[in-house]
Records
---
Amino acid sequence: MNSPFEYLIAELKPMLPAAPKILDVGAGGFCGEKTTIPLLNILPDSEIVAIEKNGVRCILLRGKVSPPVRVIQDDYFLHDFGREQFDLVVLDLDFQCLPDVFASLSGKTESLVNPGGFVIYLNICNLELANHFYPGTKDGRIEEFMKRVYWKTILEPADVRAVFAQSATWEFITAKNKGETQNCTHWIALRKKGGV
Ligand SMILES: C[S@@+](CC[C@H](N)C(=O)[O-])C[C@H]1O[C@@H](n2cnc3c(N)ncnc32)[C@H](O)[C@@H]1O
C-alpha cells in the first residue's frame, strides 16, 4: 500500500459495512489505477459500480476490472441511478468539475449516499500550484469556487473542516494530501449524518 488514497480507504474500512456498495465516479482516467483497483484490493468483498463518460476509457476499464466491477458509460451528473444508494461514493473527476462536485453534495451526491455512508472527493488546496500542474484549472472557475467557498486559495485541512462544521448533512472526517503533484490537492472524506 503506498498512495494517500489507499491509506485513506484503509482508514475508512473499519467504519464501512463488511461488503460495502461503492460508486467510483470518473473511474477510467488512469484505467482504474488510482481508485478502482485500490478499492478492489483493500475492500475485496465490496460491490463496485464505476461510471466514466469517455467511451474508450470505459472499454479499457472493462478489460481490466469487469467483472467484478460494473462499468457504466455515462455522465455522472446526468445519469439516473434510480433508487440506488451507496456506502461510499468516490468522486475523482477532472478539476474543471470541482464546483459541480461540491454543489452535488447538497443534491445528487447527497441522495446517492446512505445515511452513515461516506463521500470522498478531490479538492484543490493550493491554486497557484494547481494552475501550474493542471492547466485546465486556469479558466478562473476554480479560483471563483475557492474564494466563494473557502475565502482563500491555499487551504489547510482545518479550512475544509470549518466549511463543513455548519453542515446539517456532512461530517468532516479527514483531508489527506494527495501528495503527487507538489501538494496542490487534498482527498476530502465526509460522512453523511443520520446513520445508526
Ligand atoms: C482524474 S481521472 C480519474 C482517474 C480514475 N479514478 C482512475 O483511477 O483511473 C477523471 C476522469 O473523470 C472522467 N469524467 C469527467 N467528468 C465526468 C462526468 N461528468 N461523468 C463521468 N466521468 C467523468 C474523465 O473522462 C476522466 O476519465
---
Amino acid sequence: MGLLSRTLWPLRQSAIKTKFHMSTAAGVATSPAQATSHPRTSPPSPSPNTLNPLSKTMPPGFKASVAHLPTFPLPPTITSSASDHALGNALVDAWRRDGIIQIAMDSTQRQLWADAKAASRAFFGRPHAEKAACVDSQSYAGYIASGEEITDGIVDYSEIFTITKDLGVEDPRVRAGWPGHGPCPWPDAGMKGVMKRFEGRMGEEGEKLLTLAELGLGVPEGALTGYTRDGWHHTRVLRFPPRNATNGKGKKGRGIGSHTDYGLLVIAAQDEVGGLFIRRPNQDEKFANWEKSAAGLNEDDDSWVYVPPVDGVHTVILGDMMQYLTRNYLTATPHKVGLNKRERFAIAYFHEPSFQAVLKPLEGGCGGMAQQSADIEGVHYGTHITNMFMRNYPDRITTRRLVAENRYSLLKRPELRTMCATTA
Ligand SMILES: [Fe+2]
C-alpha cells in the first residue's frame, strides 16, 4: 500500500471528523459543506415500520434499518477553496460511514427530473411491441422487459430503458465492432431530447462530485477525473411493477437483486413510492466485483438499510472502480430494490471511466493515470462492463451477435486499452 494510503488518508479522516462535527454543532447551514439534516443514519430498529416515520414507504416484507441522511448542496463551480475542501471531506466521510449521500437538486435539475419522469411514464405505458422494438444488435441500449434481466441467476422484475453512448454506425468504434458500441434505439425524438438533457446535467454533477472526492481523499487533481474523459457514462430509466402485479417470472417482492455497480458513481433520482435498500460499508464484508461477481451477496439477511424517498435530492452511491482505485478506502455500495404496493419510477445515471481506461490503484504521491504502477496489470473498464452486460443479458440479441462475431476478443487489443478515445 502506498504512502498516501498509509499516512495521509488516516490523518485526513481525523480532520474530517473535526470539521464535520464543528459545522453541524454550529447548527447554521450557511456553508455548502453543511448538511441540511441530521448527519447519521438511524440505528437498526426492531420494528421499523411502527417506530420510524421514514419507514412508512418501505416495501412490505423487508427487514431493514432506515437511513436518515444529510443532504449536501453543491456549489456552482468547484475550486480548491477551503469550503470545497471541507465539502469534499464531508462527502468522503459520509460515503465511508453511510455508503450513500444525498445531493440537493437545484431548480433546473428538479425540472429535468420532472420531465424525465414524465417521459419515462409515457414510454413504459406504450404497448409491449413498441417497447420491444427498441433494441440494437450492437449496443446494449434500449428496452429490457420485466423478467429479462438476470441478477445472480434470478430474473429481475424491473422494466428498463438503458441509454449508452449513442454512436452512429459510421463511428469508427462501431465499424470496428467494439463490444457494446452502437446507436441508442430511441422510441422518439421527444424522449431522446429529454433524456439527453437529463443525462448531460447528471454528467456535470458527476464531474463535480469526483473533483470533490479528489479533494476529500487528498489525491492529485485528475486522479479520478482523468479517467472520465470520453467516459462510458450511461443511464437506466427504470419502472418497477407493484409487487402484486408482476408476470411471475422472478422472486416475490424482489425488484432487482443485491449487487454492486461497475464504475465510479451512481447518481439516482427516485419518485415518492420507495424501494431502494443499501448496505453500509463493513470492514468484515469482503467483495471485489471486478474479480468475482458480488451479485446476490447477503441478499436475504437483515442488515440492509432502507433509503426512503426524499423530495428534491439525488442519491449517490459508489461503484466498483472507486473501490479499486482507493484500495477499499471507499467501497462500492451493495444495493437492491424491493417491489412496493404501487408501481415505482426511478432513473440511475452511471458516471464511468472511459471504456478504454485501464485503472490502477492510487498511490501516495503518484495518484492517477499519469503515474500508474508498471507492475500492476490494472482493471480494464471496457472488459469489466462488457462482462456485466453479457452476464445480465445472456439471451439478448446484442450478446448473441457479440459472441457470434467474436467481438469479446477485441477487448485485449491495445487500441481498446488506451485512456483516450480514438475519436473526439
Ligand atoms: Fe445497481
